[in-house]
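Translate structure to sequence.
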């Protein structure tokens, strides 16, 4: 997930900057403090793969919109953004969500899950490293705690994080009550009642508009999306 690196980049590069400015800041200015040109280039490439670093990418533009307003929620904001571009992170996360609170989780367990879910996808030499990378991402997001021995925990989910998850679902075509039960909201590790409370609070804070009348729910995002983004799902 590269949370520390992303945080440094977003703090040092202007919100309206083009992607070239991000790459230059990482590679030429070395704002991440990497020792070699190769590691700088590798970091820039991986961050671009995970987050785009390009305002032409809707998810990155939304990430930059929410990021400065919610420091406690930044790990989960980064996680959601990364999960939109990393299918393995997105598809494997239900495994950790199913682990009971405070129960231990290790790379061997994660590797076994990956082997069962994707029996032909990973070579033995890469299975363990992939499991370790997932454990690291889940730790950065807050699903796990501990440096060596890791245990299941609940991530920090704020109204801003809930708003980001809802707008990601909206971009994928979820409307009304389905906005509260999309791929993205299910990654938040919150019950339906907890999620509804978070969305109502997000509405109070002005991050979205939430209206409910009986079983009818309407969630909209005034001023947040372009007309093209609003209509993208219908046109697809």
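Result:
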């Amino acid at each position: 997930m590269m949370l520390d690196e992303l945080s440094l980049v977003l703090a040092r590069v202007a919100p309206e900057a083009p992607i070239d400015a991000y790459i230059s800041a990482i590679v030429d200015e070395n704002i991440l403090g990497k020792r070699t040109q190769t590691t700088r280039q590798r970091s820039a490439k991986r961050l671009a793969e995970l987050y785009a670093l390009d305002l032409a990418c809707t998810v990155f533009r939304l990430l930059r919109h929410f990021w400065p307003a919610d420091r406690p929620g930044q790990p989960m904001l980064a996680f959601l953004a990364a999960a939109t571009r990393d299918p393995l992170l997105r598809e494997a996360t239900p495994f950790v969500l199913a682990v009971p609170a405070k129960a231990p989780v290790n790379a061997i367990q994660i590797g076994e899950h990956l082997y069962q879910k994707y029996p032909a996808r990973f070579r033995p030499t890469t299975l363990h490293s992939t499991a370790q990378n997932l454990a690291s991402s889940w730790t950065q997001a807050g699903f796990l705690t501990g440096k060596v021995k890791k245990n299941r925990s609940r991530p920090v989910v704020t109204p801003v994080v809930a708003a980001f998850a809802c707008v990601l679902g909206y971009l994928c075509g979820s409307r009304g009550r389905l906005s509260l039960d999309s791929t993205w909201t299910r990654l938040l590790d919150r019950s339906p009642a907890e999620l509804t409370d978070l969305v109502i609070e997000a509405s109070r804070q002005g991050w979205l508009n939430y209206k409910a009348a009986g079983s009818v729910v309407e969630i909209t995002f005034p001023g947040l999306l372009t007309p093209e983004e609003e209509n993208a799902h219908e046109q697809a």
